[in-house]
Specification:
917 residues; alpha/beta
Amino acid sequence: MAEILPSRFDPGSIEKGWIDSWDEKGYFKVDPDSVLETGQDPYVIVIPPPNVTAVLHIGHGLNNTIQDVLIRWRRMQGRVALWVPGTDHAGIATQNMVERQLAQEGITRNDLGRDGFESRVWDYVDKTGGKILEQLKTIGSSCDFERTRFTLDEGLSDAVREAFVRLYEKDLIYRSEYIINWCPRCLTALSNEEAESREMMGKLYQLRYPLAEESWSAASQAHKEGVDTIGQLSDGCWYITLSTTRPETILGDTAIAVHPEDPRYVGLVGAEIELPLTTRTLRIIADDFVDPEFGSGVVKVTPAHDPNDFEIAQRSELDMLDIFTPEANLNDNVPKQFRGLSRLEGRKKVLESLQELDLLGESADHAHAVPHCYRCDTIVEPRLSLQWFVKMKPLAEPALQASRDGTITFTPSHWQKVYERWMEDINDWCISRQLWWGHRIPVWYCDDCGETIVARKDPECCDTCNSSHLTRDPDVLDTWFSSWLWPFSVFGWPRETKDLKAFYPTNDMVTAPEILFFWVARMIMSGYEFMGEAPFTQVYLHGTVRDKVGRKMSKSLGNGVDPMEVVDLFGSDALRFTLLSSSGTGGDIRLDHEDLESSFSVGRNFANKLWNAGRFALMRLGGAEVYSVSDIKHKLEIEDKWILSRLQETIDEVTHGLADFRFHEVTERLYHFIWGDFADWYLEMVKARLVEEEGESYHAARSTLVTVLDGVLRLIHPIMPFVSSELWIQLPFPRGGGKPETLTVARWPEANQDLVDQEAKASLNQLQELITQVRSLRKEYGVGEKSQIDLQLIGSKVDLSNLLVDRPEILAKMAGVKNIHIDGKIIGSGAHAVLKNGTEVFIPLEGVIDLAKERERLNVEILRLEGLVEGARQKLSNEKFLTGAPADVVEREKLKQGSFLQQLSVLDRKIESLTDV
């Protein structure tokens, strides 16, 4: 049977077949009726929906591999396991993609009109939307793909409208003019979370604002009292100084402010100033927001372009003056010479103009946080705008409590405090976007009476005046407004469906930390608001995939890894194993995008090792009936008992590791068990017993091998589903045990404590140490692999001695030992070692190697090392070297001397061991 397995593992030849088989057999489909009728506790994950424009990137590869491991593991545990896939319409990103296509054709969305543009976007989505889902299948994702959802599906659109209307009816959604984050490139509002702050080096400019003449006397008095922020120009005009990073916004100032208790400016509160470069006059106001310690203690107030200034303006009833176009060019509200200039051009022009009027003071470098659009990286413009908002404080309260009382847990645990701090300080959410692609806001305005209508169904007339002249709000909702409903909208909410009853709430949420606030926190809030309970109970936030120098992988940097290229080169199992083995709990992963061979060699080599070990085992097992371990337990040899004990330990460790999201530890444990315990030790020990093809030892070896290989393949299956399935399907099963149709629905192994034999483990561990020491001594003394040696043990423990007497063939096979002598006197020249239990190991070398030639070689090496030691000694006794050389050079010389001395000590011991005793 095993003859059909090729000697070389070729993942490309098996993966497509397994994907098709899983799909055809419907192993990943879940029926809500089966859950509701049996009362089972399902295990449910909803996928973080990737953008419909996206292709699989390495971050998706990590995220979805983790989810698939959890789903496959829980499915094998016997739970109804459902993983719901889907994609997000990605309002800003998708509209930008299509608009770029239109630009290449020389047209804009306005040329097409709204309906024509939406039709064009749907054409684009129809062509690209399924690509990432097919790629998810390629890496082995065991989703129920028949349940695939799209955030603009009809049912999900109903959910979005219902959520908006409910919140509006509860007075939790409102429309207001407020300072929002505006992207001048995407031409839409952004939420606070979408405006990513980045530390940048800028300039802090000192600007001089001339005071009206009636305030000159008070200014002169303040100057005499030492207020150096007040000065006098050459024409006799007095001025007050303030600092700003954005001098171009001086054209939108409607006041300047000082702290009401700042003694420097008490006499100037209420005074008028002449706003430079304009014909307007402003007044000096007092406000507690102003920090007297920052700069001059005077701030310019630009209410339409700064959220703090907006609040000051509300308190002092100041005018709002918007000076920018949507594209962030200066508009018609500024003097003529500045109109049409970009932000940077306007800054340069304003500074030049102020310099000419002697109103520009000093400037200094200044590092400050500057928000950028999370989609296009353009610097965000704070802008006064009429937008729709959600009141977040009431929604945050139960979601915050869920973290505090442990209803929802976070892994790694430090994210809990991050989440709670954000919830405690949460701001209202700006949900309207000035786009054409997305969920239209369900709001209409009556053209006749001005009534605002928020409705679940498109209205035909105004409820107030019965007019049919209605205009719909042109904006769409923030993309996250649909995805925050994802854990229940995918199951049919707001309808009361079987899916919703069977599968909500879900269990685990696996995602990246950067969308903790965008998405995770909002899902928790919406779950409590609309469903009355949390949408999931555990949140695992995995790390970020970075390049070898620590930069986040991205298309713009050109440092990304294409998972499909990795699959083509090494297979999906190699991709999956490498990503998991590189990722500590929540830790970042580093990969070399320029050397995929080295980056993914761990997974590729392990897949090859598993294939070769499995193929060898299957070939040696033959086609005869296999007894169960319980039937032949009394005939098990010590290596059988040992490997079965190690298997039970591994089952426990892997199961607990998966439950705690410790994927790195799980892969490490499986790596050492499969590569080390199973392949390098057990298979080598049991080879000879599998040749006999008769006898109790032969059958015990076959039973053990089948049991262990079955356990190995079940344990590794969630991580490496393809190679494990290909091997397992050919594995013979013990008589009386029904074999499942395929590994993906086989039961997860449970540790059997009856198979744990502590004595066998202890004895075998001693034997392993002995074999390792003998191999090391052979290598150290240059004993060839084919040379048979004698072995003498002094002070050997009884259990080890008995094992060596009973099973001498193990040492013969694994260490090339011909004769074993226990106790007695050491005679002659040879190699020495001592085991942890105190047993002395001696290998006689006379007649095995040329002792005289080896001593000669060692003496030459000793002379060389003695010369190096003397050279280092002379350097380190030279006071000029010690005082003149850099400290690290001196330290390096000391380390070299220590290394030479250590090597000499080893060689002296070897010379002594090669001398007759």
